[in-house]
Every structure is written in C-alpha cells, then in structure tokens.
Design goal:
2 domains
C-alpha cells in the first residue's frame, strides 16, 4: 500500500515536471533561445502567498540557514528539473524489490 502511494506521488510529480518542461520549451521556441523558468519564479507567479508564508515560517522558527542558502539555491533551479528529480526519488522509494532467485529461494 505504501509503495503504491509513493508511485502515485511519483507519477503526479512527473506529470508536473512534464508540464513545466513543455511550458519552458514553448517559451524558448517563442523567444528563440533556451530560457528555463526557475522554480521560484513559477511558485511566485502561481502562489505568492504560500512562498511568503514559507519564508516567514522558516525565519520565525530560527531556521534562517535553511532559507537563505538552501531554499534560495533551490528556487533558482529550473522547476522541471526539481520535479523530475523528486519523481525519480519517489519512484526509487516505491519500486518493488527484486525477486531473490538463488540458493534459498522458495519453489512456487
């Protein structure tokens, strides 16, 4: 059941990565140069209140080190790359274990 949830989340994040990649590709074709949108730009465009509340929460709880170097660096990475890596990690967590075939395998 848990593996199914990880694989479902992986498919959803992969779908978001593909949508963001198509948007970036469309915009790049229109301006005739590759110009991917950073994750922070996309997040600020569609949900600025949640981005600002995350910043306020992290800074209020004394986690300025998490916000300043880590989150700001992550927000500069193109969004489709972030979601593709997250999808890969979720697929890796939710993958089925390999069948053990060998000396101690049961015969079914």
């Amino acid at each position: 059941m848990i593996r199914f949830l990880f694989r479902l989340l992986a498919m959803a994040t992969l779908a978001v990565a593909v949508v963001l990649a198509v948007l970036d590709a469309t915009r790049s074709i229109a301006i005739s140069k590759f110009d991917p949108t950073p994750l922070g730009g996309t997040w600020f465009e569609y949900a600025p209140d949640s981005l600002e509340s995350l910043q306020a929460t992290l800074q209020a709880n004394g986690l300025e080190l998490v916000w300043d170097p880590a989150m700001l660096a992550l927000l500069k990475v193109p969004g489709f790359i972030v979601f593709a890596v997250l999808a890969f990690l979720l697929f890796a967590i939710g993958r089925r274990p390999a069948r053990r075939i060998g000396r101690f395998a049961t015969d079914n």
